Amino acid sequence: MRFPILPTARYRALLASLLLALLLGVTGRLAFSLAPTPAPSPNGPDGGSLSQRGHLGGPVQTLFASNGTLFAGIGPELAALDLTDPSQPVRQDYHLYGENLTSLTIVGDYAYLTNGNFHIAGIADPQNLTSVGSVNIPGTALDVAVAADRAYVVSSNFAAPYGHLRIFDVLTPTAPLELGSLSFIAEARAVAITGTHAIVANDIVGLSIVDVANPATPQLRRTFATNGQAYDIAIKGNYAFVATASCAVNCAGGLQVIDLADPVNPTDVFFSPLPSQPTRLTIQADLLLLANGNGGLAQFDISDPTAPVNLGLTALGAKAVAVAASGNDAFVATGASGLQHLTLTPTTLDGGLPNLANALAAAFLDDYAYIGDGAGLFVVDTSTVEAPVIIRQIATAGWVYDIAFAAGYAYVAIDEAGLLIFDVSNPADPQFVTSLDTPGSVQAILVAGDYAYLADGATGLRVLDVSDPTQPAELTVIDTAGLARGLALDGATLYLADFDRGLRIFDLSDPADPAEIGLYNTPGEARAVAAAGNYAYVADGFNGLRIIDVSQPANPAEVGSFSNFRYAHDLQLSGSYVYLANDSGGLQLFDVANPAQPNLLDTKNSAGLAWGVAIDPGRRLIGLADRYGGFYLYRQDGISLKGTVVQANGHGFAGITINSSAGGSAVSDAGGLFIFNEPALGPQILTPTGAGYSFLPASQTVAVPTGLANIQFVVLPEPVQANISNGGGSLSYTATNGVTTTLTVPPGAVSSAVTLVLTPTVVLPPAGHAFAGHAFVLAAYQGGSELPNFSFDLPVSITLDYGDDDLGNIGHESSLALYWTASQTWSLAGASCSPAASSLLLTDQNQLQTAFCRTG
């Protein structure tokens, strides 16, 4: 049996006293187990898998207003925004898709949308959006129009033919059925329907006019050259209003009106050039609104379609890419800058929706996520994981690349703008404290005690004194040969990811003056690092995950790797699991219990480029900062932290409560098994409790998730004691399996009163013996002090009952005996007397009788 060698520290401390153990001698001619069959020994926590729980942000690229609700494509979300206060839309619900939305239209209770593919969502209840149907589209679906239970989807390809129109029957929204298709020589960017014709905005070709009377065989009837690249189209009456974009040769951007009274013989009736690049437009009654790129929002009175009146441009300070209107309110999608609201009469820019689009870094603090973006620092309330909400946005002078928390402060790495420090005693409302510019580009920050370590790009590693966070002071600069990108600390060792110069290792014996003690040049571009024990884990750009043995810092060596030809930006380590932000490869979960063979357990694709990772251990949350796709929240599910409570004989023991320092408790079952379902991630202390019992060990520290092979506690009776006088006395205890051991001290065995203390324990048996489940330490005390090597004047008898479960499947119990040691040598208990005391083994009664004469 592999009995856990648990009590070593306690065992060493008590060797000055007498240690007695019931052992079985092992002879060469006997074939039996060396110990009873133990309770099952489960393999610590399971790895689990990642489930997507929440999302926030991404570029706003498409809008549609309907019945007091604004439906918005916010990155990969179809979001329903309540317009009770149009200047401050509130997200009611969202449905998450795999890629960023490019267009949407509402017809009845359904939203028809594209995001590279074609999807239908149920929107009857804006607070409960549902996915209804979807179709994978070859190439990239860019726009959809719906008329008479048919959906017309246009898409573009990277190779000829460059554009397509596909027609679907959507009478049954759950099962859209493709009816027919048509290819074009140019990209198909948008589509609108008039009668039996589909009008396609066909990029450099202009408009393609397609007869769709027979959807199975759509026919191209005519192309019509527009003044610029045809980007979007809307129809009112017999007129098509086209947003055209300028190009290098003979192209003009603006609004063009085309008479389609005879669709196969269109005529050009109006053109108004516009600065910048018009993209999307919408019509509300006699008002046309056009998203004009960097030129803002253009408005036209189209009461006379042949002579629209330009009502002017409204600058937005951001690139307008789409627009929707509801009454006197206009809403403009501005991509990464979010959503802006305008009151139309008079035109006033007065609100909108803050947006997190280009997320690069994240860190958790209580129920909040601090997220770094190209637009600054965002504070997000994640108390409701499924519906995170931006509660604060702080503009910064550069991209936010890293965030670290320490002692009530947030340290924020701001690229070339250096370091910002905030007081986060109220996490919902960070207060700026101070800043420190550096000559480089701050990519990462790590705070330990009174010191902050900055990875400052081309200028290397910088050490700051932050004992007073309001006045950080630079102490040391180490100019590394590469571009300092990432930092990790394990004990007194600092690891630095130095981009094309690999992994650098520093000794922090003097934390103010790191000393480089090792270097490993990884094959790629080391961007981030995590470390624990003998291993460092490097996010190495195109070369993926690299695992380095750093047990000898002066001679680090790679032992394992994993690459799927994406670009590893960032990683986090928890126990034996690595969470890797892998660019277009999404978020990847690895089991690195065997560092030589990292095992990819799960991958979660994101809409943009997976860039930064954060972990909230208490809630088992993993946050992914996605450049172009916003912020994702995942939960690591399926984790169960398992262990056993066993008796000294190895059998399970029921009814013991195990408490976790991370919260929660578990109770051992009849087999001794205890399970924490969905425990918190990260280090935690497990402590068993039970009235009348002691435990070895008294507690254990584990990390979740982890590759820990065995979590086991041994339950023992509590110590007992008795005052023994010259007149004799006795001392007994009952083992966990109900059998009793009694020590009887005869009159005259002690010349003066002593206190005997008996402490049940377990032992590692000597070679050639097996432990049979009963052991105790006996010590004599007088006046509160232990009497070392105390000898009795007369033998003290022991009657030790044992159970069948102590013997397990051992076929011969005749070699059962009680042994003692006060050093490293084991002898029969009776040998402590002179002459040696005899022993009597009553196998029919499961009882051993013997004697001993000393405690040390």
Characterization of the model:
Helix content is 1%, strand content 52%. It contains 2 helices and 76 strands. The protein is an all-beta fold and 856 residues long. The strands form 18 sheets. Strands 1, 66, 69, 70, 71, 73 and 74 form a 7-stranded antiparallel beta sheet that branches. A 5-stranded antiparallel beta sheet has the order 67-68-72-76-75, with no helix packed on it. The protein has a 4-stranded antiparallel beta sheet with strand order 2-57-56-55, with no helix packed on it.
Q: Which helices and strands occur, and which strands form pairs?
A:
Layout lengths: L7 H6 L4 E8 L23 E8 L3 E7 L2 E6 L2 E6 L7 E7 L6 E5 L2 E5 L3 E5 L7 E6 L4 E8 L2 E7 L6 E7 L7 E8 L5 E5 L2 E5 L5 E5 L7 E6 L4 E8 L2 E7 L8 E6 L7 E7 L7 E4 L2 E5 L5 E5 L7 E6 L7 E5 L2 E5 L5 E5 L4 E6 L5 E7 L2 E6 L2 E6 L7 E6 L7 E5 L2 E5 L5 E5 L7 E6 L7 E5 L2 E5 L5 E5 L7 E6 L7 E5 L2 E5 L5 E5 L7 E6 L7 E5 L2 E5 L5 E5 L7 E6 L7 E5 L2 E5 L5 E5 L7 E6 L4 E8 L4 E7 L2 E8 L2 E7 L10 E4 L4 E3 L5 E5 L4 E8 L3 E4 L3 E5 L7 E6 L2 E5 L4 E6 L5 E6 L8 E7 L8 E14 L2 E2 L4 E11 L2 H4 L8 E6 L5 E2 L11 E3 L4 E8 L2
Parallel strand pairs: 58-65
Antiparallel strand pairs: 1-70, 1-73, 2-57, 3-4, 4-5, 5-6, 7-8, 8-9, 9-10, 11-12, 12-13, 13-14, 15-16, 16-17, 17-18, 19-20, 20-21, 21-22, 23-24, 24-25, 25-26, 27-28, 28-29, 29-30, 31-32, 32-33, 33-34, 35-36, 36-37, 37-38, 39-40, 40-41, 41-42, 43-44, 44-45, 45-46, 47-48, 48-49, 49-50, 51-52, ...
